[in-house]
Write a structure and sequence with these properties.
single chain; alpha/beta; four-stranded antiparallel beta sheet; 16 helices
């Protein structure tokens, strides 16, 4: 039997040119007859194949795929995704899908964030599925992702990822048994081409080799006069991608190895970020007013101040979309009077004002979360930020002011997105409006050094003649969605000295398909409630397209600005809760790594290969005056990992990393170190 042998990192990999016989003992011999290794092959198992047929529009998957790119002079690259829409009897479903595909078609390529979505014809078990960043990079991995030549290197280079199979026998859409999702371990390069190879070797001892579908087998075959144009185009794309991959791969592939090869081109990154870059400039030039205070009340050792402030509105009042002139430039359409909540410790009623933390709530949430974060989050000794002398201020974001939700917010988020799509509204513009408001609010906070509203100690009305706030060092805290907005907002301002971002970095497409994620179950249930009857794989392909429509609000889209926008960037404390059921840990880690120069701070509860590690305390690892670290917290019930302090009764990580006593102690220490020395210090999480 013939084949090719490859020596990779002192390991010999042999790729036979034909399938080995089932239930047999096979030997590999050297040219001198020496036995190099012996393998016993499994039985034939149950045949399976990847769902792939580009001559029908019944299924969106697999996605992304450059077969759908068409010439488009309106985009930066001259192409855009033009995906044929599946047909639905349900008018609501048809409108949703048609409008989603229309928004996707405005891009110059595919999302840099994934996920990649594939469907399999039958239930499937794969012992060799790459489930970690490390195993995805093995020379003989059954699935491999490449950045192709002509992008950031001269030859094809491997890209780490994690893969997930979801059988979901009790799923709402059981017509597809298994969906395969690929989550890239980095933000993919704008304008670059990528190739995903799924080999026929994916599987286990109980499964047969994974076959190419009849349609993809035709793509791999020699040209035939009966080939459709889609087959001809797919063949050209596949052969070109395979040639690029074999030009740089440690182990080369032949067509017999392939169950699927997808090539996809990532959209230009500037089109993703241009809206927020415009909004940054508009926010910088907006005339700053003051706070219109309507109420001052006291509770124990804290004063609570409420009122409104004035922000610009950049949206069309009819459509809710960002308003643009004939040249595509965003324009201001009006003014907004936005409520705020300020909490100030009474001990600041002395010689110095209280240092100020801007607090951004999660989703769902509102400005009242300022009170929780400052007055209720406590360490094991009962210390709160308020008790330690900090003031906090925040406002409710546009999404929650205008579309308040209840419960955990997830079903409502999806239904809200579906309703927006049904009416043709663009996705993500509400979030960009909120971030623009944040940028204006930061500038406003820096003007509050003379604020004096706390009453004198004798109980008389009016101020006491002493400033209530010290805004010389401005701080930021964002939890969950507040952390997402923080990641995106921080590079576009220069007034915040340090920020704590807890359980953020969401990639929406990943959250909607990740096993065990609350958002994923809510996503499928919301589709069912809306009578959008599609297979699980089609639903997950829809989630990937939703991600593309929401790239402009995705934190990781703005990570590159951390390297280019700052002389000295703010210190970052990034807190992650293991087994987070709202924000996948993968998303947090990829976003964190994209920021660059962030170290994982010991103890390493789960080592993150994307980051360098550092002992605690971590100080000034980015530059003098700038620290950046990721710290992990563990809920109860994780095998081999002790629960973090204050998380012993919590069984998932999302809230453990926000209000657990160890997380709060670290938060207090981080902010106090900024005030004490100007160099933020990140202490251990335990």
């Amino acid at each position: 039997m013939l084949g090719e042998a490859f020596l990779v990192d002192e390991a010999l990999i042999f790729n036979p040119s034909v399938d080995l016989p089932a239930e047999s003992i096979c030997e590999l011999l050297s040219s001198s007859g020496e036995r190099l290794w012996t393998v016993e092959t499994a039985g034939l198992g149950t045949a399976n194949s990847i769902l792939y047929d580009r001559d029908t529009s019944d299924s969106l998957a697999p996605l992304p795929d450059d077969l759908f790119l068409r010439s488009d002079s309106s985009t930066i690259t001259g192409v855009s995704p033009q995906i044929p829409s599946p047909r639905f009897e349900n008018e609501f479903a048809q409108s949703v899908v048609d409008n989603l595909l229309a928004q996707v078609s405005e891009g110059s390529g595919w999302s840099p964030h994934g996920p990649i979505t594939i469907g399999l014809a039958q239930q499937f078990d794969a012992d060799n599925l790459p489930r970690s960043f490390e195993t995805s990079m093995a020379a003989d991995a059954a699935i491999q992702l490449f950045e192709l030549s002509g992008a950031t290197s001269a030859t094809a280079t491997r890209v780490p990822f994690t893969a997930q199979l979801r059988d979901d026998p009790n799923a709402e859409f059981p017509s597809d048994i298994t969906s395969l999702s690929i989550f890239p371990a980095r933000v993919l390069a704008g304008g670059a081409r990528y190739g995903l190879v799924i080999t026929r070797f994916l599987g286990s001892d109980s499964t047969a080799a994974l076959d190419a579908s009849d349609s993809f087998a035709t793509v791999l075959a020699a040209p035939n006069q009966d080939d459709t144009q889609n087959i001809i185009d797919a063949r050209q794309i596949t052969n070109a991608a395979l040639e690029d991959i074999n030009g740089g791969a440690a182990v080369m592939f032949d067509q017999n190895d392939l169950a699927l090869l997808l090539r996809f081109t990532v959209r230009d990154r500037t089109e993703v970020t241009e809206s927020l870059e415009q909004l940054r400039d508009l926010a910088d030039s907006f005339p700053i007013g003051g706070l219109d205070i309507t109420e001052v009340s006291s509770r124990l050792n804290v004063f609570r101040v409420r009122g409104t402030w004035t922000a610009p509105d950049f949206r069309d009042p009819l459509t809710g979309a960002l308003a643009r002139d004939a040249d595509g430039v965003i324009t201001q359409t009006g003014l907004l009077s936005i409520p705020f909540v300020l909490t100030v410790p009474s001990q600041s009623n002395g010689a110095f004002g209280a240092p100020l933390i801007m607090v951004q709530h999660g989703n769902p949430g509102d400005s009242e979360q300022v009170i929780s974060v400052l007055e209720s989050y406590a360490d094991s000794d009962g210390n709160t930020l308020s008790a330690r002398g900090f003031a906090g201020i925040g406002f409710t974001d546009a999404e929650n002011r205008e579309n308040p939700v209840g419960g955990d917010g997830s079903p409502s988020f999806v239904i809200r997105a579906l309703e927006a799509l049904q009416s043709g509204q663009p996705l993500g513009d509400e979030t960009l409006q909120s971030i623009a408001e944040q940028l204006v609010f930061v500038r406003l906070l820096k003007t509050l050094g003379a604020l004096d509203v706390l009453p004198p100690r004798n109980g008389a009305s009016g101020g006491d003649g002493v400033p209530d706030l010290d805004v010389s060092s401005l701080l930021y805290y964002g939890g969950s969605e507040g952390a997402n907005k923080g990641f995106s907002m921080l590079p576009f301002q220069s007034d915040i000295d340090a920020a704590a971002l807890s359980v953020g970095g969401t990639r929406v497409g990943e959250a909607l398909v990740a096993a065990g994620n609350i958002n994923s179950g809510a996503f499928l249930q919301s589709l069912k409630s809306a009578n959008i009857d599609v297979s699980q794989t089609t639903a997950f392909a829809g989630a990937a397209l939703l991600q593309q429509a929401l790239d402009k609000e995705t934190s990781a889209s703005y990570a590159r600005f951390y390297s280019s926008e700052f002389d000295t960037r703010p210190s970052l404390l990034i807190q992650e809760g293991l087994d987070d059921s709202f924000v996948p840990n993968r998303s947090t880690r990829v976003t964190t790594a994209a920021v660059t120069q962030v170290a994982q701070v010991a103890p390493l509860l789960e080592p993150v290969s994307l980051l360098a590690s550092s002992p605690a305390p971590l100080v000034a690892n980015v530059s003098d005056g700038s620290t950046a670290g990721l710290v992990q917290f563990a809920p109860a019930g994780l095998a081999g990992i002790e629960a973090s302090q204050g998380c012993e009764a919590q069984e998932e990580g999302h809230f453990c990393a926000q209000d657990g006593t160890a997380a709060v102690a670290q938060l207090i220490s981080f902010f106090e170190s900024v005030l004490d020395s100007g160099n933020a210090a990140i202490v251990a999480s335990q």
